[in-house]
Task: structure prediction
Amino acid sequence: MEEQKPIYKRIVLKLSGEALAGPHGLGIDPDRAEEIAIKIKQIHDLGVQTAVVIGGGNLWRGATGAAQGMDEPTSHHIGMIGTVMNGLALQDAIERVGVVTRVQTAVQMNQVAEPYIRLRAIRHLEKGRVVIITGGLGNPYFTTDTAAALRASEIKADIVIKATKVNGVYSADPKKVPNAVRYERLTYKQVLDRKLQVMDMTAFTLCEENKMPILVVDFWHNDDLLRAIKGDLSVGTLIS
Result:
């Protein structure tokens, strides 16, 4: 039987900072980084150009600091720097499984990462390198979901893949409502009308305005991510 080919040429994979965290949901766990690296290598080996946007919630959340009385922009900047730390840890893990990787950051740190430059990111992807995009958008008040939505449009990705711990978007929380239904496909309008949680509103609106499809998939379950990239609708939820 012929091997199914990927249906996307260039993707932005959005990972939360928690994906890198240890059992307590905090810090950077090298074993988790290695697991993520192996999954990214599998996508890369299919010939899919892969950019990764990573969050920083395992190290710091801007909203948490602000809620405790910190200056809010300062708190957000700490979070952005946390995403660079995550990006470097992930780069190390991906390089160790044999894939050339570049870290780019919207918050300039020339000793450790390239500044985010759109055309340079595209060139790296065309040369078969994985690009990890960190530092959010370099501005406070924007989430890394928004960074993923904007960067995907900028680098002309085919899709944003939001990697989660749930197999797609459900009609209700499947952990609390046993008969919740998984949607295979949704339109942007259906997501808004049904008040479904996919991304924060700024990120979601950016995707809608730029006609950027969103795929929500369970990153950790077997080969769900690979199957979704090959167009298998029995996993994940496609919003377009």
